[in-house]
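Deliverable D2.4 — example input (structure tokens):
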């Protein structure tokens, strides 16, 4: 049996309408935006649910470029394990399967207001979490501060936990413990 066909990163509209849509403008001067969506437009032009209330995060292009490769590698490894065609981030609209989208947004929330020098630490810490921990952290954060403009509480804690908690590459760090202390 061949690989399952997907759009973007693991998104299969026939299986679920729930996904995240990463919007990358053509101009390298414009920011990246991510929307959580519950509908899929059968045309190439995605317009449904691209509204302010579904906007999860806006990230400047420089910071996006610092995490894009790590996300691509992590997601494609998981897609290969599930025998799904791999994806790539490109200009325009890229749908991301809902669980991968939660993980992507979590990392983007962590770095949106951080110093770019802290991004490698954030990526290492993010990679050190299991996918279930990432899903849980996204869910807790999203429930209280999930809109792009709401950068308090859990969002701040996520930033500090992932960017200011150095990871020992051998043993990892206890990010969840640190997060609980800071909320």
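Example output (designed residues):
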């Amino acid at each position: 049996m061949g690989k399952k066909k997907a759009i973007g990163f693991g998104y299969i509209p026939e299986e679920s309408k729930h996904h995240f849509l990463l919007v990358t403008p053509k101009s390298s001067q414009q920011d990246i935006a991510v929307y959580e969506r519950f509908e899929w437009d059968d045309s190439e032009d995605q317009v449904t649910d691209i509204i302010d209330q579904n906007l999860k995060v806006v990230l400047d292009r420089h910071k996006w470029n610092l995490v894009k490769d790590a996300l691509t590698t992590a997601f494609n490894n998981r897609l290969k394990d599930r025998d799904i065609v791999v994806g790539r981030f490109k200009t325009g609209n890229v749908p991301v399967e809902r669980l991968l989208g939660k993980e992507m947004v979590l990392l983007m929330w962590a770095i949106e207001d951080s110093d770019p020098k802290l991004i490698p630490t954030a990526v290492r810490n993010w990679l050190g979490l299991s996918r279930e921990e990432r899903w849980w952290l996204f869910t807790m954060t999203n429930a209280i501060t999930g809109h792009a403009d709401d950068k308090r509480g859990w969002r701040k804690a996520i930033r500090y936990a992932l960017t200011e908690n150095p990871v020992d590459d051998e043993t990892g760090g206890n990010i969840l413990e640190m997060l609980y202390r800071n909320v």
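The CA atoms of residues 25 and 99 lie 24 Å apart.
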